């Protein structure tokens, strides 16, 4: 695959996850909606990484660490949001965290965090579409 094809591949996977996040939210599956929202951001970060580094992506699922690997300049709010959303990956996946996370994932909590995910996605998509790399 060319770099451009690989970038497009990661974007398409992210878009599919983003759509699934909304479908899960609408079905009342709030924990899984946030988990898949995390995946949608992870895949956009990987698209950006491939675009600017033109090399194989690192095997990292931590959104903040991926952003650092991409040499992205982040505001404090973006740093906090990436670190916080990364927790959805862990808490939705591991049984010992699930019970507490299920209690936390009310509809309002999920809406707030979907908005966070959407904001970061919009920002990342603009970065990817930009002709400038950094």
CATH superfamily (homologous) name: Nucleotidyltransferases  domain 2
The major β-sheet equals: none
Q: Give me the secondary-structure category.
A: mainly alpha
Overall geometry comes to globular
> How many E strands?
0
| Annotated CATH topology | Four Helix Bundle (Hemerythrin (Met), subunit A)
Radius of gyration: 15 Å
Report the end-to-end length measured between terminal Cα atoms. 23 Å
Uncertain stretches of 5 or more adjacent residues: none
Task: Quickly give the CATH architecture.
Answer: Up-down Bundle
Strand content: under 5%
Domain count? 1
Question: What does this protein look like?
Answer:
- It is a single chain.
- With 134 residues, the chain is mainly alpha-helical.
- The protein is 79% helix and 0% strand.
- It has a single domain (3-129), classed as Four Helix Bundle (Hemerythrin (Met), subunit A) (Up-down Bundle), CATH 1.20.120.330.
- Helix 2 packs parallel to helix 3.
- The mean pLDDT is 92.
- It has helices spanning 3-26, 30-53, 63-69, 76-93, 95-104, 107-129.
- The protein is globular, with a radius of gyration of 15 Å.
How would you summarize what this structure contains?
The protein contains six helices and no strands. With 134 residues, it is an all-alpha fold. The radius of gyration is 15 Å and the shape is globular.
Topology:
Elements: H1 3-26, H2 30-53, H3 63-69, H4 76-93, H5 95-104, H6 107-129
Helix pairs in contact: 1-2, 2-3, 2-4, 2-6, 4-5, 4-6
Task: Please tag this protein with its features.
134 residues, mainly alpha, Four Helix Bundle (Hemerythrin (Met), subunit A), 6 helices
């Amino acid at each position: 695959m060319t770099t451009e094809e690989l970038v497009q591949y990661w974007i398409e996977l992210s878009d599919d996850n983003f759509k699934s996040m909304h479908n899960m939210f609408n079905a009342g599956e709030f924990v899984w909606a946030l988990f898949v929202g995390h995946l949608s951001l992870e895949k956009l970060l990987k698209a950006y990484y491939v675009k600017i580094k033109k090399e194989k992506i690192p095997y990292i699922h931590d959104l903040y660490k991926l952003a650092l690997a991409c040499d992205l300049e982040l505001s404090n709010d973006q740093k906090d949001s990436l670190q916080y959303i990364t927790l959805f990956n862990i808490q939705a996946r591991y049984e010992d965290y699930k019970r507490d996370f299920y209690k936390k994932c009310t509809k309002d909590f999920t809406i707030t965090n979907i908005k966070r995910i959407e904001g970061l996605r919009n920002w990342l998509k603009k970065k990817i579409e930009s002709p400038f790399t950094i």
